[in-house]
Amino acid sequence: MRALRNIFAATLFLVGAAVLSLASAARAEDGAGRTPAPHPPRAQGEHCVADTAFMRRNHMLMMFDHRKEAVHQGVRTPQFSLAGCVSCHAVKGEDGKPVSFASEKHFCRSCHSYAAVQIDCFECHASRPEAPKQAVDAGGADIDKLAAYLRETKQ
């Protein structure tokens, strides 16, 4: 009797394990039950400075290296600059202008909020592309004001 009970329990265990295995495989196929991933907006450029999978894993290391070279060693190259990233990955708001880091739509925020990673880049750097610079009027009042200011500060 005891042997029969053990066989029944083992069979029941195997059937239950098989059902759970099939259910988990079905869930994996349709994506249900998986941890949701962030979906950052697509960049505007033709291609990034590196392949997408590489950038997702290593962008912070590349930025740290670029910072070390630019700030500590004085070597400034545009390839991995934050300004370049911001200009290519800018997301426009409803007003048609790029949003700042304060917006949930900001490219960096889409993943950093998801991963609960706090970044301090935008305490010093612009979080949206700079507007094109307008030419300064070389003649007229601007030059006169500048000359007057310089005369005052020399005294």
Could you give the topology of this structure?
Elements: H1 2-30, H2 52-72, H3 82-88, H4 107-112, H5 141-154
Provide an overview of this structure.
This protein has 155 residues and is mostly helical. The protein has a domain at 52-123. Helix content is 50%, strand content 0%. The chain is built from 5 helices and no strands. It has helices at residues 2-30, 52-72, 82-88, 107-112, 141-154. The termini are far apart. The mean pLDDT is 79.
Brief digest:
With 155 residues, the chain is mostly helical.
> For the report, how would you describe the main beta sheet?
none
Distance between the termini: 111 Å
Q: What's the total helix number?
A: 5
Helix content: 40-55%
Shape assignment: elongated
* Unreliable runs: none
Radius of gyration: 29 Å
Record field, number of beta strands: 0
Beta-strand portion reads under 5%
H/E order of the elements?
HHHHH
Mean pLDDT: 79
Global structural class: mainly alpha
Please name the defining characteristics of this protein.
elongated, mainly alpha, 155 residues, 0% strand
